[in-house]
Amino acid sequence: MGSIPTHNIEQIAAANDIVEVIGTYFPLKRAGSSYKALCPFHQEKTPSFHVNRQRQSFHCFGCGVGGSVFRFVMDYEHLDFPSAVKKLGACAGIPVIEERSSSGGTDDRQHELRRTLLRLHAEAAEWFHENLLKQGWAAPAREYLKKRDIDGNVALSWQIGFAPESWDALLKWGLEQGYRRVEIIQSGLVKLRDEERSDGDVYDRFRNRVMFPISNAEGEVIAFSGRAIGNDAETAKYLNSPETPLFRKGNVLFGLHKSKRALIEANSAIVCEGQLDLITLFEAGIRNVVAPQGTAFTDNQARILKRFVEEVVLCFDADAAGQKAAERSMESLLQSDLIVRVAEMPAGEDPDSIVRTRGREEFV
Fold this sequence. Notes:
The protein has 3 domains: 6-92, DNA Primase, Chain A; 106-247, DNA primase, catalytic core, N-terminal domain (DNA primase DNAg catalytic core, N-terminal domain, Alpha-Beta Complex), CATH 3.90.980; 253-363, Dna Topoisomerase Vi A Subunit, Chain: A, domain 2 (3-Layer(aba) Sandwich), CATH 3.40.1360.10. Helix content is 41%, strand content 18%. The chain contains 15 helices and 16 strands. Helix 5 crosses helix 9 and helix 11 (275-283) runs parallel beside helix 14.
């Protein structure tokens, strides 16, 4: 990210009243010329967290945290400063200006490529979603989701979509939107038949699959996971995007952009094996959930999770693969000084099936 000019930061700060911003996260009670609440950053029974509208600042007299509206969003959302500025800029409808160097070097090209790929992924997610909702040939996908108790509201909330059973539908769509062939290849949404020939034939990576957007911690779509709905035994059940300039599988936790506040509040994370397990739990009110982009935790994913919680509950499927995934995950999680517990699933069950057939209370 380039540097954000001071005048842009000041404009965004002026447009985000700190009382109104913090009030969107939890209730504030007027106390004279300021506002107070129980501090969200430490356990307490008497409110010591104060927000001063005149000074546009907050301070906790219990644990000492304090600062501007940017500092609050950074601490509460676990964001860096540029990301907090972007979030508050979006809330106020003010574009964030990123000043780039005039050298035209590698950093500038990488920055522009990243912006293009983020836009392409966001628009592709919407295209997949519209396919699911409106296209007749997506009926089998809608039926599959219906059987998993995924209704329209849930599909909308998670922007679930569908990739048609076509070799070039996504490619044609991308070209029609004005993206260059090389950009669509770099996104990982299409694949070269011959990886050694960049000018060779390409085909859509995701075909006849229910599509789950994978987002970073700021909620930007950076990749996809596609669930096959056909009966071809040779077809992988799940297919993820390859690693790209946006996506490193071992650095991302599915669902974190939605669950991070619940993780902090619970100080515990339930780790599921797949997207549908996570979505079912989240929509049932069990929101301190994440899923690795694979069957086991990486060291980086463990370090990310340590920022939010002290305890992890592994909740993988009750099969040999699930048991192996739990064993492989233990080392990385323990090395990050996390308390690890393993939930025992009944034979043939997973979190999704338990919640759907027996209810939230049975799972908890």
